[in-house]
Each structure stands twice: as C-alpha cells, then as structure tokens.
Amino acid sequence: EAGVAQSPRYKIIEKRQSVAFWCNPISGHATLYWYQQILGQGPKLLIQFQNNGVVDDSQLPKDRFSAERLKGVDSTLKIQPAKLEDSAVYLCASSPLGLAYPDTQYFGPGTRLTVL
Amino acid sequence: KQEVTQIPAALSVPEGENLVLNCSFTDSAIYNLQWFRQDPGKGLTSLLLIQSSQREQTSGRLNASLDKSSGRSTLYIAASQPGDSATYLCAVYSGGGADGLTFGKGTHLIIQP
Question: Is the model's pLDDT at B73 over the cut of 80?
Fold first, then answer.
C-alpha cells in the first residue's frame, strides 16, 4: 500500500514570496490533515478536510494561508506572502475516518520550509 | 486550553533496558490519546491509540497506559533496541475542531548499542 506522498521535500524562499505544498493521501482515506511543526515543538493541526470539504480550519492563518482539496483526493497548501515565522516542517496526514474516531493517521515525510 | 507536557525532554539509555516515557495533560475531558514516533527527516508513525474509556493498549514491546482522572499517560518500552531511537510524541484529542488536538513537544530517546 502506497503511503502519503508530499512534495517538495525541501523549499527555501525569501520573505514575502509565495510557496505551495502538495499532498497525495492514501487511496480511500476520507480525511486529510495539514500540520505545521516548528523546530522543537509538537505538530499543530492547521486544517482538516473530510472528502473535499473543510471540517475545521480554525487554526489556519487565513490572511496568508489557504488550502484546498480538489475532488476529495490531492490537496495543496499555499502561503502567500511568507513570513520568517512560517519556517517549519509542513506535514500532511490522512485517515479513513476522523479525529473523533479511534482512527490511525498516516503521515507523509513532510516539506521543510525555510524562509529567509 | 489543553496543555500537554512530556518528561523527560531527552533520554539516553543502554540497549536492553526497560524504560518509561511520561505524558501529562491539564484537561481530563479527552476523547483519546495517541503515542507517535518521529524519526529524523520523516513524518510521524502512530504507535498506540487509547480511547478515553480504555486503561491501556499494547503492541509488541510497547505498552501505553492512560489515567484520565489524573491527566497522565505512560509509554513503556521493554528490552530497548538501538532501532527504538527516535522522538516520541504524545497527542491528546479533546473534541471540537482542529484546536482540540494538542501535541506535546516530545521525548528524544537514544538507545546506546
């Protein structure tokens, strides 16, 4: 079974530039998550999709971050414009059900973003 | 607001020892608690999930316990091996939306061969 795929693996940009991350979840998983993990911290859940609809984006800084999940499969997370404090690893995960269930999340390898 | 604390922040033990990692949380009204492992440059791998109604879960050499009333969980690793070296993260889900999922900062574990 193929795992969660993410690209790119690394990205270096200057502040005020734009960047986009891509995620392909495990086939058949209804729920997709985007996390931000700052160095030395635990991951922070930014947004949760159920199929192609947003379940919760309460922790997504919507003035600069946006995310979509077209056709309930792949997802993209965009930052525009980037700030220095956005430097982090962005993790994508998927699961069959959702947070309220005894449901295992499967994580991709992450994209390490450095904003200079 | 839920807070999750993991102690110790780092731990180094010789191969073969049994060890315990600790996780504490401030709000006992939780749906579930999960333990993850994270290897350098990789994503997280789910190890064990304990629902709020359960006391413990076991998988191989790993055993996780949950004492919801006291806000504590432990991850017990038996007969540690160098391949167990990783960062171990505890996460608590308290319901609601994305802000209901709270991770600790992790325990960085090194098993000396």
Answer: yes
